[in-house]
Amino acid sequence: MLNHYLFIRRMIMFGMEAAVFILFACACSCKSVKPYQRAYLNDEAMQVGKRPIEKLSSNAHNYREGASGGGKAKSSGGCGCN
Amino acid sequence: MKKKYIVFGLLAVSSAYGFSQPAINPFPKKKISKSSIQIVYSQYIQDGNHSAITGGIGTEKLKVYAPEFIFRNEIDSANSYSVDAGVDVISSASLDNIDFIKSSASKVSSRVYLTLGYDRNLKNNRSLTWGAKGYFSIESAYTSLGAALSLNWTSPDQSKEFSAELEGYFDDLRWGRLNGERPLRLVYPVELRYRDWFSEYRRRSYNLNLSWQQTLNDRMILGFMPGISFQQGLLATPYHRVFFKDSSERVENLPDKRLRIPIGIQLNTFIGGRYILRSYYRFYWDDFGILAHDFSLELATKLNPKLTLTPLIRLYTQTAAAFFKPFRGADPAQPIYSSDYDLSAFTSYEAGLELRLAGFAKQRRGIYVSDLDFRYSFYKRSDGLYAHMLSTLIDLITRKKTKLKNFE
What we know:
The complex is a heterodimer. By secondary structure, chain A is mainly α.
């Protein structure tokens, strides 16, 4: 069981390093997009931030974990003390 | 000569006919007001064995049923307002352990909340929008008032978007307002009510949320979401017990200030013609001693133009707060102590599936069903706590056209 959670921890650290690498690579490859090229970008799933259907998950994470914020999730206004 | 007379005659008749009719604008200006109604129903079922109410041991069984109604109306191209109202019906086994009376009213509690919002495009600069929000919520052990101001800027070519939001929440942790009880007071575990443990009953939270969104190319969007949050006042929960090494017992005591810094990064990518990969990473630090990493992936798969299936996975890890101690692990000489496992060191994962049906062409009485969403996920924490989360959403859209008289 312990090894299982160590694996999760390692995966997260790998994800963090990958995210930093992707961020750097993407920031170097910006190019302008014409309005008629926005068909993919306007898709609902491409929108940045939390969607209303994710609200329950976000609230549960805020209440059951020490961390909160970093993506338009509310970080107060309820005790979650149950 | 005859032709000339015919032409003049036709012109005279047509002009006379024309002047006798009221001027008709073939393109009258219309005001289009668009409304969106979202109805969300969520259910949360949790169990575990580390309740903070019983000092880090005991049941954490909890059920929450949460219907919510979100209404947004675009009055015209510049102004819009929104109403978000909902109820959380909470059935908690651990709340009963405040006073160990199983039939008490605490067994089923509820939380009612209302958010009112207004957004406006600035007249001289259509790419700039400001907004204001007011928030109110009440539950048996909590009353919260909140306000927020926001500013949003979008570049003319829509490739960049910046938003900033400043929030303030002013909470009162005294028990009984929802039940109409007087006097309002902090509630402690039944055996610890021989003294008032806290003189403070307010909690104030100030959050600054920033967001920078950059279109990288015609298939990639990057979001960078840093924030800072400061809390002050009674941050402990008055009915959380702590059992010490010497078998003595007290109410949880936390610092009266907390500084939190989250930084979120999101990258959404269209892979091929059918797949959208939503990846998210968050770094978090606070002065309680918690350092957390949060990484999630969602792969939206378009099975056909109307149906999208999204498997999702989330991995999370955090270090413990400096003062966290398990049951009978705290030193009585310490000034700050807690046995709340939400502040312990743990890893967690969440796995789930989302189904989205969109693009309904049919309308009834001017109301379109825009989309239907279903989402289920399973959450597991390394200390044994687990939860099932289920949400359904119906998104309805109405459009109403009104002619503007001044332009007719």
